[in-house]
Design a protein that fits this description.
This protein is of the alpha/beta class. It contains eleven helices and six strands. The radius of gyration is 23 Å and the shape is flat.
């Protein structure tokens, strides 16, 4: 199942970012440390080009520390990209972030020119929490639901820096099906866009291969089932999620699993690695190629039909 969610205000926000692009000196992209690849907006990558960028890996208190470091190392290989690990539990990161901004735009430091830093990220990634940390006061509204911020706002700092906050932006076509599932699991997409048992099954399949010991510990399982559905059923029986006749209520147990993952009850879990990302990008390229070939064959077929129609008319 392809998971998509693209409300109208996101299209408006993307258009506004393009309109102010020439004013921007630094991009501050807030990523979910549990899904650093899937929480990147490919449209933003296209818009920013080679402009200096700070990638903030937020919610590191929920992610696997080893994988967080692997992602920071991976991103910092890119031109003009710096990274910073962040979460709402750690102390003030204001000075560190301001210092990073200035280092990326040295030509504007100690001048009368304002440094414009655009803060971007997908819904529910924690941009507002970051802004409040940088400013030292409650400027932006925070929440656990996607799409809390709806309009662009500008925040002036004393250091000659203006922060430009934007609404959380997804993209209209999530080509990588895996990214759609991970966004749904972590809460970046509203629940109206997917079925809970579907994303819970996806989560189970990954957890069985990547974090089996955490599953055993959390759900008191001596032996792990072999499949995602069997795991959901085992958890459901243990938690009493049963319907009449002893059947497991998949909706109920799926919600338990997803909520416990999001609340960090299962442990510090990252849902993707740089190596996984490279493999999936190759798959997306193959899908694009096949799609292009299908479109080409369709166009050729149309031309042949038009040619036959013309000959028949004569």
């Amino acid at each position: 199942m392809a998971i998509q969610w693209y409300p109208g205000h996101m299209h408006k926000a993307q258009k506004e970012v393009r309109e102010i692009f020439s004013q921007i000196d630094v991009f501050i992209e807030v990523l979910d440390a549990r899904i650093p690849f899937s929480s990147q907006n490919p449209m933003i990558e296209e818009i920013r080009g080679d402009k200096p960028t700070i990638k903030i890996l937020n919610k590191t208190d929920l992610a696997d520390p080893e994988n967080t470091q692997a992602w920071q190392d991976y991103f910092e290989q890119q031109k003009s990209v710096k990274t910073l690990a962040f979460n709402s539990q750690i102390g003030d990161k204001r000075e560190q972030i301001i210092s990073m901004i200035k280092k990326l735009v040295p030509e504007k430091v100690n001048s009368v020119k304002t440094i414009h830093a655009l803060i971007i990220g997908i819904p529910n990634v924690g941009k507002s929490t970051l802004i409040n940390n940088i400013t030292g006061r409650t400027i932006a509204k925070t929440g656990n639901e996607p799409a809390v911020t709806k309009n662009q706002q500008r925040i002036k700092l004393e250091e000659g820096i203006t922060l430009i906050d934007t609404p959380g932006m997804l993209w209209p076509n999530i080509e990588n099906e895996n990214s759609g599932y991970r966004l749904a699991i972590t809460g970046g997409i509203k629940e109206t866009a997917f079925e809970l048992p579907d994303i819970a099954s996806y989560a189970c399949e990954y957890l069985l291969s990547a974090y089996p010991e955490l599953l055993k510990e959390r759900f008191n399982l001596k032996e792990l089932p072999l499949t995602d559905i069997e795991l959901l059923e085992a958890i459901g029986r243990q938690r009493g999620c049963l319907r009449s006749g002893g059947m497991v209520d998949l909706d109920k147990v799926s919600r338990i699993l997803i909520v416990e993952y999001r609340d960090n009850v299962l442990g510090n879990i990252t849902l993707e690695t740089p190596k996984m990302m490279e493999t999936e990008l190759e798959q997306v390229d193959l899908q694009r190629l096949k799609k292009a070939e299908k479109l080409k064959a369709k166009e050729e077929d149309k031309k042949l039909r038009r040619a036959r129609h013309k000959r028949n008319k004569k």
